[in-house]
C-alpha cells in the first residue's frame, strides 16, 4: 500500500482542547499509528540540523539553551510578538516538518493512521488527510486548561489562540467533531465510536 492509498485521519484542535488525550486513546486502546506534528517540529530543529542554524542566524543566541538546543519558549515569545517573524519561521519549518510526517505516515501498519497537528488547517497539512477530526472546546475552557497545565499567563495563551485557526475555521474543515467539554470517559467514548467508523472506511465500506 502506498502513502496515497492510506486512510489518514487529521486530528486537530486549539491549544488546550485535548488533542493529545484523544490521540492517546486511538493509539493505546486501538493500536492506531499516530504521527504527532509537534514532535516532528522538534526533530527538524535539533542541534546539527540546518534549520536550527538559520533560526539562530535570524534571532541570535538568545533563542538557544545552554546546551545548544532550541529554547522554544524564547523563540515563541519572539515570533508571537511579530507576525512577519512568525511567517518567516513557518515558511522555513513547514516544508521540513511535512517531509518528516510523510515518511512516518508511510511506515504505518495499522488499518488507518492519525496525523495530530494543532496547525493542521493553517499549514495545509489537512491536504495529506482524507478526513479531518476536530477536538472542539469553548475558548474559555481552552484558556483555563492551558494556563493551569503550562503555568503561563492568560495573555500569552490568548496570543497563541489568535495565531491558530479560529474555532469556526477548524469546524468548517471538519468531517468529524469530538466535543471535549466533559470528562475523560466521555472523550474516550467518542474516540471509540469514531474508531469503528474509521475501520469501516479503511475496509472500503
From TrEMBL:
It is found in: Cytoplasm. Pfam families: CoaE (PF01121). Keywords: ATP-binding, Coenzyme A biosynthesis, Cytoplasm, Kinase, Nucleotide-binding, Transferase. ATP binds at residues 16-21. SUPFAM superfamilies: P-loop containing nucleoside triphosphate hydrolases. Signal peptide: none annotated. GO terms for molecular function: dephospho-CoA kinase activity. The keyword Cell inner membrane does not apply. Belongs to the CoaE family. This is Dephospho-CoA kinase. It comes from Halopseudomonas formosensis. The lineage of its organism: Bacteria, Pseudomonadati, Pseudomonadota, Gammaproteobacteria, Pseudomonadales.
